[in-house]
Amino acid sequence: MSIFSPVGNWFKAPTGTERLWVGLALTWCLIMSVTMPYWHFKGKQNSTGESYKVEASAFLDRANQFIESNKVGEEKGVPIVEPSPGGDAYLVGEMWRWYPILKLKKGQTYRLHISSPDLQHGFSLLPMNMNFHILPGYDHVLTITPTSTGDFEIICNEFCGIGHHMMTGKIIVE
Amino acid sequence: MNATQAIAKFRTCKTTGLRVFRNAEFFTKVNAVLAVVFLLVGAIAAIGLALTRWTAVHLLGSVYYYRMLTLHGVNMLVFWIIFMEMGILYFACTTLLNSRLFSKMLGWISLALMGIGALMTNYIILAGQADVLLTSYVPLKAHPMFYLGIILFAVGALIVCFNFFATLYIAKRDETYEGSMPLVTFGAMAAAIIAVLALAHGAAALIPTFMWSMGWIGPVDPGLYRLLWWGLGHMSQQINVCAMVSVWYFMGTMTTGAKPLNETVCRGAFLLYILFINLASAHHLLVDPGVGPGWKIWNTSYAMYLAVLASMIHGYTVPASLEVAQRRKGFTKGIFGWFSKLPWKDPGFSAVMLSIIIFGFMGGITGVTLGTEQINIIAHNTLRIPGHFHATVVGGTSLAFMGLAYYLVPLIFQKEFYLKGLARIQPYVFGGGIVVMSLGMSFAGSYGVPRRHWDVDFSGSILSAGFDPIAHVMLGLVGIGGIIAFLGLLLFIGLTVATVFFGRSNEGRPMESWQDEHSTRMKDELIEKGYEEEGKDYEHIKTPGTLTVVIIFLLTFAVYYFANWKALADLWFVR
């Protein structure tokens, strides 16, 4: 009777089926707890949160310098930039675009720096559905290795004002 | 206290024999009424959202979409649910402990603060000066009144919690009850403790943000804001869970005469909620910069999995107690004979049973999986997230509160429902709609469809983007499920409001049972027996039906969990 005070000494261990279930549930919780650190060492997809405090203007300077020195083309007025394999790449998320367009090589690893000079944004890579959070003032570094080729869309999935739905970008992998 | 004074301070409930204290009863009523008012506001916003996300309809313009999204989030997740929980706190610390309320004055002060706060925030959202969504992530800035309204509301809620704890104290001091407090009160106490912690985080996040919006201080760090805000945002969900589970136990007793199998286990599980949820804000930050993998993994598994264990325990103990109650009534045929004989036509029962099923199978499994550090990469800010929490907080908590209302209105407002036939189908309509909507969201989200997004065709963007046609079909399900749930919700609001204001009074007699004479008599007999038979015939009754269901649950959980790891493993490499 959950609405009345229990009678007598109610402090006792579970028995029978209830005890079995508590044991099973605890085992499952432990399995889940172990899986994350296991994947951290053995898995290929982790969010390490590597990041550095950065002033918006400093980040934009670095991004623009990166664009200037590595630009290989243009699409609809957006620069296409090819970073050197194993090197640094920059991506700016601002109201309301991701730029530049990045041209990467399959199987190569890049250090992708992403930041925002204005609001919080959500880096969402489609159609794979990989998502990372972007904060102003933080240089979020993703050490990323494309494993498939083609054109990939970037959208924003954190609300950033009225033009949020127009905020798109692109990654080309060859 | 002489007899006349006693009559003025409480009445004895003709249905349960419990004492209902007038002061607390008043505040329970007012909080419940306000809860339903804000539920209606949130519901009107909700239908606009569902019909906008349904891409074939795309009802609202972008400005109104985000405004309604802000309105919906704030009214549903804050005002409806917390007003309702305050009503439950007033009830659980007085009637169930046979005690008067500590302070009527504090009751009034908290009510005023909460009411004014809720009105301010609603006003400024509708005035178009706070299109920042519920989370109001800095540096997105709202009018100061937005933050101030929520802060006042939170302070009011904090005062209710204080009044609750003080009432527990005077009840113990005056020995108004013997031994330990009832389980429902214990669960409510767990909710109140978590509420204090949650509100402290809320203050730490919102007070500096309010000062910044006034221009008194410089910018607030967005990473720190997210950490603190989710200390409020996620812990609040644990208040909801505690309150919901308390309602499960309460309604289990009221509708079937069920008794907790083992008080130690049930209370221990509530204790786990209190101890292991304090850093649950972590799983909103799993793909954030600023916090490292050690921090993410530790806080996810440490804070989550013992709290998950608690939910898995309640998910067994509540149905198991129903099974035992049914078997004691003689429904012993096979493994599930007891299950088909449950009072499915009693909306108080069906709402709670659906709440347990939806919360466990949909909300729980998705929540734990999406909150896994690495799996969050394929879930963060997609529609999978609202797909999860509409199953927990709507299909779980709100539906349980609706079930409670089918008993609260006759017992506390002392009014009998009209159109009982409609009330009987209401939980199925609402629950069914939420299930369809939640599935639509989850599947659309697995294609990467973002949450909080006006146009997934990205019209006006320079570089085009878009989704698979199947994702659009899933968004259609969001719209259709949303319509069904909205109708179920209107039915609930219509029935309860009509009954509270114009219902037939049942003062001086027991409430009319939702169940037939035979089952009412059987459950009343079990309730009357109370704890008397402890250790006699009770402990020998097995629960094979519930065990079968929870084993199926565990297998479903494991399949979903590992399928997500498989999906993750197919992605680009990233660290």
UniProtKB/TrEMBL annotation, chain A:
Q: Which InterPro entries does the annotation name? A: CcO_II-like_C, Cupredoxin, NosZ/Cyto_c_oxidase_sub2
Superkingdom, taxonomy of origin: Bacteria
Assigned keywords, A-Z: Copper, Membrane, Metal-binding, Transmembrane, Transmembrane helix
Q: Which residues form the Cytochrome oxidase subunit II copper A binding domain?
A: 84-174
Do the record's keywords include Transcription regulation?
Answer: no
Give me the segments passing through the membrane: 20-39
* GO terms, molecular function: copper ion binding; cytochrome-c oxidase activity
Would you name any one GO CC term?
cell envelope
Where in or outside the cell?
Cell envelope
The identity of this protein, by name, is Cytochrome C oxidase subunit II
Name the source organism.
Fodinibius halophilus
From TrEMBL, chain B:
Q: Which PANTHER family match?
A: CYTOCHROME C OXIDASE SUBUNIT 1, CYTOCHROME C OXIDASE SUBUNIT I
Q: What superkingdom heads the lineage?
A: Bacteria
A molecular function (GO) term? heme binding
Q: Which Pfam families match?
A: COX1
Residues spanning the membrane: 32-54, 74-93, 105-126, 146-171, 183-207, 227-252, 264-282, 302-322, 349-369, 389-413, 425-449, 469-502, 545-563
Where are the annotated coiled coils located? none
GO CC annotation terms, alphabetical: membrane
Tell me which UniProt keywords the record has, alphabetically: Electron transport, Membrane, Respiratory chain, Transmembrane, Transmembrane helix, Transport
List, in alphabetical order, the GO biological process terms annotated in this UniProt record.
Answer: aerobic respiration
The organism of origin for this protein: Fodinibius halophilus
Give the InterPro entries listed for this entry: Cyt_c_oxase-like_su1_dom (IPR023616), Cyt_c_oxase-like_su1_sf (IPR036927), Cyt_C_Oxase_1 (IPR000883)
Cytochrome oxidase subunit I profile domain residues are 33-512
Task: Write down what this protein is called.
Answer: Cytochrome C oxidase subunit I
